[in-house]
Amino acid sequence: MLVENTTLDGVLVITPKRFGDDRGFFSEVWNRHALAEAGVDIDFVQDNHSFSAAQGTVRGLHFQSPPHAQDKLVRCGTGAFLDVAIDIRTGSPTYGKSVAVELSAENGKQLLIPKGFLHGFVTLVPNTEILYKCSDIYAPDCDGAVYFDSPELGIDWRIAPERAILSDKDAQAPRFADFKSPF
Ligand SMILES: Cc1cn([C@H]2C[C@H](O)[C@@H](COP(=O)(O)OP(=O)(O)O[C@H]3O[C@@H](C)C(=O)[C@@H](O)[C@H]3O)O2)c(=O)[nH]c1=O
């Protein structure tokens, strides 16, 4: 397992080892003990699986407020997507800054996004599956969203923003400039 830092403190790219043979490969996609040895000991309580049929589907930018803030460990089942984390830790030197990492079935990379970050992604190919572990349960009362293409964030979504496929909730989310972080 390879654990790499990103430009945002706490956001990690994790690449589990793959054992390839004539059949394909085997990989431990999450091993609590191995991750703890690498300094990441998180008590995950929920596994999520989402499927997006169309390329250019954007989900996010989402967060859950305390007391149900979530760490997330995100990976790709099939297809490929650009996964994005934005620092919303008040007082952080990188507040409002983002990292974007391509996660695909092919590269097997995972992104660890701690509490105190917005999370979202855009699918890069049709029929993309996203799998992620969360350290707290879904709590609709703590659920929040920021508009993905807020100009202050300057994120390159690799698509024309007006062509993004969004939920109604995400299309109506407030701009980052109007957002008050609960972290
Ligand atoms: C996130 C979530 C949703 N739901 C339900 C609520 C709703 O009826 C339906 C779809 O929910 P959403 O539209 O919020 O799904 P989605 O837009 O895929 O939301 C997800 O986006 C990514 C970027 C994240 O980081 C996740 O934490 C989550 O916010 O699923 C659950 O039952 N449990 C959950 O954990």
Automatic annotation (TrEMBL):
CDD domains: cupin_RmlC. Coiled coil: none annotated. InterPro entries: RmlC-like, RmlC-like_jellyroll, RmlC_Cupin_sf. The record marks 138 as: Participates in a stacking interaction with the thymidine ring of dTDP-4-oxo-6-deoxyglucose. GO terms for biological process: dTDP-rhamnose biosynthetic process; polysaccharide biosynthetic process. It catalyses: dTDP-4-dehydro-6-deoxy-alpha-D-glucose = dTDP-4-dehydro-beta-L-rhamnose. Pathway: Carbohydrate biosynthesis; dTDP-L-rhamnose biosynthesis. One of its GO terms (cellular component) is cytosol. Pfam families: dTDP_sugar_isom. The active site is at 62 (proton acceptor), 132 (proton donor). Belongs to the dTDP-4-dehydrorhamnose 3,5-epimerase family. NCBIfam families: rmlC. PANTHER family: DTDP-6-DEOXY-D-GLUCOSE-3,5 EPIMERASE, THYMIDINE DIPHOSPHO-4-KETO-RHAMNOSE 3,5-EPIMERASE. This is dTDP-4-dehydrorhamnose 3,5-epimerase.
